[in-house]
Specification:
The protein is α+β, with helices and mostly antiparallel strands. It has 3 helices and 7 strands. A 7-stranded mixed beta sheet has the order 2-1-7-3-4-6-5, with helices on one face. The radius of gyration is 15 Å and the shape is globular.
């Protein structure tokens, strides 16, 4: 039995595979796009920290060695991810990154993921 993973962008979500989420996460890390994987937040700005504090109503955070911020598991993270859910605040996050940092294969993969997401949800960066 295979477990279906989810990619969320804003209020929209689509089913995905764990391997797709792993590949997408490595690209998001390279571009330093803020995202949340399995309840651990990566590349957050101060605004994101205030937003999470408001949403989760706590002052207790677990900061991981790589600088990521743990939301639910505040007392330690085992370093293993299930790749169940990858969350990105908005497609607008991709307007402010240097895509030249990506290899041709990574850029093609990212483009296909964004296209699939727009196709399945009928949203676009230009419509938001």
């Amino acid at each position: 039995m295979t477990t279906v993973s989810t990619i969320k962008i804003g209020e929209y979500k689509i089913p995905s595979s764990r391997q797709t989420i792993k590949n997408l996460k490595s690209i998001l890390d390279k571009l330093e796009v803020p995202h949340i994987l399995d309840d651990v937040s990566f590349h957050n700005t101060l605004i994101d920290l205030y937003r999470m504090k408001s949403l989760h109503n706590t002052n207790v955070w677990k900061v991981e060695p790589d600088g990521s911020l743990s939301l639910k598991n505040r007392f330690g993270h085992n370093g293993r991810f299930d790749n169940r859910c990858l969350t990105i605040k908005s497609l607008l996050e991709f307007q402010f990154v240097d895509l030249q940092l990506l290899s041709n294969e990574e850029a093609e993969f990212l483009g296909s993921q964004i296209y699939e997401f727009e196709f399945r949800t009928s949203i676009s960066v230009n419509n938001r």
